[in-house]
């Protein structure tokens, strides 16, 4: 994996939020697209109706983002 992680601010914030909270639910259709974009990158996964959690790869990325002071 490269040193540069390219995520939009919304994606970065959501990934860190899920990492800290353990899971999350999309609040609306716009936020659902952010969830789906993170899922395409294999950073989060849909586990039950409306509930998403972080994947092992997503946890690695979230830790890197947190270490760089993006939160």
Total domain count? 1
Number of helices: 3
Derived structural class: alpha+beta
Into which percentage range does the β-strand content fall? 5-15%
Instruction: Assign an overall shape.
Output: globular
Return residue spans where pLDDT drops below 50 for at least 5 consecutive residues: none
By CATH, the architecture is named Orthogonal Bundle
Strand order of the largest sheet: 1-2
Sheet bearing the most strands, described?
A: 2 strands, antiparallel
Order of helices and strands: HHEEH
First and last CA, distance: 21 Å
The CATH class is: Mainly Alpha
Walk me through this protein's architecture.
By secondary structure, the protein is α+β, with helices and mostly antiparallel strands. The chain contains three helices and two strands; from the N terminus they run H-H-E-E-H. It has a single domain, classed as Arc Repressor Mutant, subunit A. A two-stranded antiparallel sheet has the order 1-2. The longest helix is centred in the first third of the chain and has 13 residues. It starts with 8 loop residues before the first helix and ends with a helix. The model has no long low-confidence stretch (mean pLDDT 87).
């Amino acid at each position: 994996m490269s040193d540069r992680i390219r995520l939009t601010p919304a994606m970065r914030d959501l990934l860190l939020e899920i990492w800290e909270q353990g899971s999350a639910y999309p609040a609306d259709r716009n936020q659902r697209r952010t969830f789906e974009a993170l899922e395409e990158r294999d950073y989060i996964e849909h586990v039950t109706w409306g509930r998403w959690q972080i994947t092992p790869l997503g946890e690695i990325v979230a830790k890197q983002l947190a270490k760089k002071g993006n939160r």
